[in-house]
Structures are given as structure tokens and as C-alpha cells.
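Q: Hi! First time doing this. I have a protein sequence and I read that you can turn it into a structure. Is that right? Here it is:
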Amino acid sequence: QKRGTRILVLGAGRIGAAIVYDLLRSRGMAQVGVADKDRGALARVARHSSARRLAVHHLDSTNGKAVARLLGRYDAVTSALPYRQNLALARAAIRAGVPFCDLGGSHEVRNAQQRLHPAEQCGAREHRLLVVDAADLGGECELLEESLAQHVLV
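A: Yes, that's right. Below is the predicted 3D structure, encoded as C-alpha cells:
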């Protein structure tokens, strides 16, 4: 029997908290993790969720080794952190073999992510990056849901 999906949300601010809330309401979620360096933000997310499936992680997302260790414990990761961090996070996800969803925010970062060379996979099981840029979607929520279903929720 399938154990369910484990998804990590990087960032416990407003967007990250909303993602966590939605994921915890989704069927098939074995665990939803949220990671941030702000202990207060983590406490707010945990306080608003009584789900046993929520795991809270204190994490400095600029610490590559700590990020890599945590990513390896999840089936997929989405970033709700400032866009400047997402290129390094995408590389870490590729190395960990974990599908990565970036909510966008910078065409420059998105383009750099799309140019990541296959050699950066470093033996990853899969190389899946999904960059969602709301401006590119033109309000097409169905497209976003379809993309997430195909590329992130494996």
C-alpha cells in the first residue's frame, strides 16, 4: 500500500503558510513539512494546524548541507522563499533527486533554472523543475493545477 506523499514547503510566511494549509487538507499527504529560519513564523504555522502530519523544521536555507539533508526526506519541495534563493534551491533539489516547484517572481532566475545542465543532476533519480510564474499564466488556474499534478505531486 502506498504510504502517501511527503511534501516540504520552504518558507513559513504568508504564502508558505497558505500552501501548508492547502496541502494538509489534501488527500494522500502522509506528511507536510515547513522549513524556515524564523522560529516565530514556524510557530504561527504550527499553532494554526492541529494536523499530526505537519513537521516543522528550523532551517537556514543558505546552509547548503542542511538543505540537502532535509530535502532528501521528502518526495517533493516547493519554495515560498524570496526568489533570489531559488536557483541554489533548484540545484539542491536536483542533487537530492527531489522534484522542485518554484513559484516564480523573477524571469532571470527562471531562465537560469531552465538552463541548468543535466550534469548538475549528480545521479538524481529524476530531474523535475516546475517554475510557476503567475504573470505567464494569465490567470489560468487550471493550467497551474494541471502543472502541479503532472510535475510535483508524483
